[in-house]
Design a protein that fits this description.
It is built from five helices and three strands, in the order H-E-E-H-H-E-H-H. The protein has about 160 residues and is mainly alpha-helical.
């Protein structure tokens, strides 16, 4: 029988987990199939400390995004009702390129908000960089693949049971 205390995803998601940052532009290892990790100056893998998809911060972010998109849908509906004389109302409701860009921006906001630490990152002079929200935001803006890795990691609830 499953014990409820072992299924408490919210508490597990609230504890940060370490994600090894991988270089997915390189060739994967022949034996493991994994991409190589980016390494710090001391040869250890660079990591990001991330909260999970069920954390309070993730829920708050999700609610903000849902409200933003629902408000956008309502605004479109109001505009379309005002333009009743147009025959192509359905066409004006279609998802736009701007909507897709907004979704990508919300993924970026999400991983920034759920990143609570890092290890192994250096400035251009080789000095270790202290974690800060602006610094991690800059990392994510420069490296979209690391954003993709973080989104995948955050959404993978199975990793919470491996720790």
């Amino acid at each position: 029988m499953a014990k409820l205390s072992k299924l408490n995803m919210r508490d597990r998601a609230q504890s940060a987990s370490e994600m090894i940052v991988r270089n997915r532009y390189a060739e994967p290892d022949d034996d493991t199939g994994e991409f190589p990790a980016y390494l710090s100056a001391d040869g250890k893998p660079c990591t990001l400390s991330l909260l999970g998809a069920d954390s309070k911060e993730a829920e708050s972010h999700s609610n903000k995004i849902k409200a933003r998109f629902q408000n956008k849908i309502i605004a479109r509906s109001v505009r379309n009702a005002a333009r009743k004389h147009k025959s192509d109302v359905e066409g004006s409701i279609a998802v736009t390129a701007e909507d897709i860009a907004a979704q990508a921006e919300s993924d970026l906001e999400k991983v920034i908000g759920l990143t609570v630490g890092w290890f192994g990152f250096e400035d251009d002079d080789g000095n270790p960089m202290a974690f800060s929200v602006p610094a991690v935001a800059e990392l994510y803006k420069q490296e979209p693949d690391i954003v993709a890795q973080a989104v995948e990691f955050i959404e993978d609830r199975s990793r919470l049971f491996l720790e």
